[in-house]
Amino acid sequence: MTGGVYLIGIVGLLLLVLVHEAGHFFAARAVGMKPTKFYLGFPPAAIRRRRNGIEYGIGVIPLGGYVKIPGMFRPAERDAQRYFAPLETTHPEMAPLVDDIRSALRILDERALLPGLDALERQLAALPPSSVTSLAANGIEELREGTSASAYWRQATWRRIVAIAAGPFANVLAAVVLLTAVNVIGLPVALSMAVAKVQPGSPAAKGGLLEGDVIRQLAGKEVTTAEQAHDIIQASKGRGVSVVVARRGALIPVGTITPRKVDGEYLLGLQWSIAYRKDSVPRALQRATGQSLDVSRQIVTGLPRLVHPQERKQVSSVVGIVHQSGEALRAGTRYYLSILALISISLGILNLLPFLPLDGGHIVVALVERVRGRSLRRELVERFSVIGFALVGLMMYIGVTNDVQRYF
Predict the structure, then answer these.
(1) What CA–CA distance (Å, rounded) separates 311 from 318?
(2) What is the pTM of this model?
(3) How far apart (Å, rounded) are the C-alpha atoms in residues 48 and 221?
(4) pLDDT at residue 180, rounded to an integer
(5) Domain range for residue 115?
């Protein structure tokens, strides 16, 4: 059963990635671009099918997703080096043609590039098939697509931003749909501040709380909802909280109870009497939209706090995400859908960080090129990418380290 629960957690995460990539894919097509590949996971392909000029597939690397929009960056001289240098080594007679292609890329003259590619392709056809000729043929195709009229870097700035921003937007939209379902299914709410159960050995039990007690005051403040009680207990940071209850018609000061920290939360060890609040679809949609905006705001405002060691302990890797999804699924469908919604929003917001290869980095590049009136040189783009790769690598390292400490 445990394996099945975690498998469902993995499937849920992959579906969220699919939603993200689908946002890019359909938005790109809507604004006139021509994606050539749409994968769940990363290539090489385990399964693939071509339809209407687009290759659909499942990659053998089951992390993330992949949509190929040709010409994400303007082709550069180093592309010729990558694709054709082995060909020059094994077939020196091809060097003059490769030099023509390299020169055209150096001066950014796409009109001179295409005849060079055509000539090289004709010469390749006469050579016996090999990994070197296959790489060169792939390079010819990539450079043609990368300089075509539908290439991403040639598009108007607004088209580029729409295609890129659609991925994070799709994740937030998916979260709204998931939370709408949760609100329709029903969320647990406290019927009153009556204590339904006191866990044996908990701070509440040691402090003298009894089942049937009705909490009236915590830390000197009147409380009427479970949310208020939760906020006061968390604000205590583990310090003692004075408790006043109604018991048999009389107000009784129970004394000071010190919350216990469990999985990052401060708890007294009691359960409230609860019921499930079920919304109509319109009301559930309205509530889900507000919840998604609140979570998005919390994620954005919480990012700067990651510089503090205590806050960094909240970061999780894929291992932690799958584990939390599995635990939520054990608790019930509504909790699993809620966790998926939170993950979806996080995926969308974090992808908007302004660093390549994240979506936010592509938006920054598009805006900078709009201001400059011309494309950035590949060298600058790659240097900019180093920051993003370092940031993503650091977050992955922190997340994996945290998860190892938590679960292993």
Answers:
(1) 18
(2) 0.73
(3) 62
(4) 94
(5) 77-146
